Amino acid sequence: MAYLLYSFLLLGSGALLFFAPVCAICPETCDCQHAQHILCANRGLRAVPKAPQVERAGDVRVLGLAGNFIHNLSAFDFMRYGNLMRLNLQFNQIRNIHPKAFEKLSKLEELYLGNNLISAIQPGTLQSLKKLTILYSNNNEIKDIASESFSHLNGLVKLRLDGNSIEFLKESVFKGLPNLMFLHLESNQLGHIDRNAFSRLSKLQFLNLSDNKQTELRDIFMFSHLKSLTALLITGNQIRHIGNNVFQNLKKLTKLSLSHNKILKLDNDALKGLARVKEFEIDKNELTEILAGLLDPLERIEHLDFSDNHISRVDPRAFGHLSHLKTLKLKNNRLMNLSGGIFATNGVLFHVELNGNNWTCDCRMEKLKNWMTHAHSQGKLLTVFVRCYHPPVLAGKYLDYVSNSQLRNMSGYCESEPQPMESRGAVAETSILKEERDKREGEIHKRVGVQGDEGEQGVVTTFERKKRRKLVSSRPRPTAGKNGSLSDFSTTMSTFLTGHVHNHTNFASAQHEQFNLPLQDRAKHHNSRITMITDACQFNHHFILNVSVEDVTSSTAIVHWSTTPDVGLVHGKELLFRVLFDRFGHSFRFPRYVYTDGSDRVVTLQELRPDSTYITCVESVVDGAVCQVAPRDHCTGFVTLLPLVTSEVNLQLITVAALTANALLLLLVGVFWLGRVLKRRIRSRKSSAHGHVRHMYSTRHPFRSTVATTCVSSEFSGYQSGRQLAEEGDLIQFPGERFFDNSPARRDDDVIMLRYSD
């Protein structure tokens, strides 16, 4: 007995020794389901929890402290976590970091400091992190980066500094990062970048400079050392000019984005050296034309985006060397026509966006229409929307549904007009187009009432239009110059318009320009700077507002939230919302989620428990990714109501009662059916046992005369005989019961007697 007790105590002490270290190293309010992971996210902590003095505290590999209220990091907070590999401090309120806070974390590989209040990283703070590969310091308040802030981080691969207030990049700021591959600098205040700021980043593959204050790209040495770069994003700046040979050394670049700038012109050699670029975006700028040879360096380009510019002229040879082009976007510009053979050499082009332009459907568009029809018939081109803007007869119709004869009738001089003029856009207009413009301006004057009443203005407009038509018809036909231009015609028309339309210049020109501007251009002037959303964390921080819960019942609740007005400016990213709800205060957590479309701002939660406290949070899902830490600022709590006494219904009892009733009903039906079956079988046995006796008895009786038929059974009608009736016993029909007897001898005698009864 003593031996058994000793063994039991020994086993118990071993179990305690096995479980004690796991529990001992886990601070209160934290989760330590894994022996090497301590997770303390969203626990309301105001300081880094202290680890107990046990030997196994050094075995911790992951420490999560995100979503708390930590203000400072001291020199002793991580002294006992020497083997830590991942430290997450995002979404706190950290302002100061002691220079020796990370001194003992020599094995740390991932450090997340994003979404705090850090204003500077002192030199030497990160010096001991020799194995660090990922550093997040995004969405802080950093204004200046010291030259030695990132020194000795030879293993760093990804660095995020986006969402700060950095204004200047010095020459040697990144010199200690020879293996850096991903650098995020978007959403800062960068107005100047030293020409040697990226000189040591020979392995950099991704660089994002979007949403800054760059005004020009002229220095050919700025990107000259980035020979491994594959993606360069410079969207949302204030760039007006791109110089020659700026990108000439980016031999491996595959994506270049210059969207949301103010670029007026690209120099002839601005894109030189970009032979491997497959995607080029220069939409939402102020370009006015696409010249021949500008895009020739883009030998492997597949996707081009020139949308939302002011382009009115495209040279017929602009896309001639782009044999790999698949997608071309020219929507929302000021194009009036395109050359018919402009896409003749683009054999793999399948998607073209031309909507939102001021297309003039005349004979100059006939070849373009034929190309579209031929490409559609072969299944090589998706639907292209070219909607006629001029002349008024065809306004609103799509080019696909306009016949060639209609196009030819819209202008009579197209056959004699030189071919290069097909892409001139608004440079030279025919007399008929000017007549239509005058007609439209007259209608505008008539609606607004610039001169006199409506009747007088209508007479004046008609008179002037007839006068101009007469004067134009007396002028000689336009002829091309040496270079295919119409300078004489333009000069003549300018003189004519100057002399006869002087009274309408101030009003009609402004109205005409505004009338020709697409709606997207007008909106662009209203919002010149657009916030670029890069991830879900940034969206949660800037756009989600006013989370509330209404109409709470015993099992449902309605969650409302709102977003800032510029949430619609999130372009190119799929947006969803995820609503989390969970019972508050329970040790075992089982959070549930409801996903909604990006346009929804209300969700109904169901299957709640009565008299329970819930907490619900709203967060975004941008391009299928959520923020690593729950949005603490967008949560709210609520208590579900107890159900009324009159509405208390136990669904389980109702289900059991219904099933029981159905079972009893089926049982009764079965018993009734079985009884009838048994009864029928008994009757059939009785009839089969003496049926032949009744047959013999009925067929042996003599035929009765008509006098005696009233008292004779119908069974005797089948036998005819002339003999007289016997005694009255012959008319008696014996019931079937008389033939049932237990004695077989008696039964045989009865049969014999009946057979010879006659």
DSSP summary, beta strand count? 32
Q: Helix tally?
A: 11
Give the spatial strand order of the biggest sheet.
1-2-4-6-7-8-10-12-14-16-18-20-22-23
What is the distance, rounded to the nearest whole angstrom, between the alpha carbons of the first and last residues? Answer: 106 Å
CATH topology of one domain: Immunoglobulin-like
Task: Estimate the strand proportion.
Answer: 5-15%
Overall, the morphology is flat
Helix content: 10-25%
Structural class: alpha/beta
| Main sheet specs | 14 strands, parallel
For the residues shown, what is the average pLDDT? Answer: 76
CATH homologous superfamily annotation of one domain: Immunoglobulins
**Cα-based radius of gyration, to the nearest Å:** 47 Å
The poorly predicted ranges are: 1-22, 416-434, 444-530, 691-758
CATH top-level class of one domain: Mainly Beta
Which architecture of one domain does the CATH hierarchy give at level 2? Sandwich
Walk me through the topology.
Elements: H1 2-24, E1 37-39, E2 62-64, E3 72-73, E4 86-88, E5 96-97, E6 110-112, E7 134-136, E8 158-160, E9 168-169, E10 182-184, E11 192-193, E12 206-208, E13 216-217, E14 231-233, E15 241-242, E16 255-257, E17 265-266, E18 279-281, E19 289-290, E20 303-305, E21 313-314, E22 327-329, E23 351-353, E24 359-360, H2 366-377, E25 388-390, H3 404-409, H4 431-448, H5 454-474, H6 487-500, H7 505-516, H8 519-526, H9 536-542, E26 544-550, E27 557-563, E28 575-583, E29 592-597, E30 602-605, E31 613-622, E32 635-639, H10 651-699, H11 744-755
Parallel strand pairs: 1-2, 2-4, 3-5, 4-6, 6-7, 7-8, 8-10, 9-11, 10-12, 12-14, 13-15, 14-16, 15-17, 16-18, 18-20, 19-21, 20-22, 22-23, 24-25
Antiparallel strand pairs: 26-27, 27-30, 28-29, 28-31, 31-32
Region (Disordered): 459-486
Signal peptide: 1-24
Protein name: TLR4 interactor with leucine rich repeats
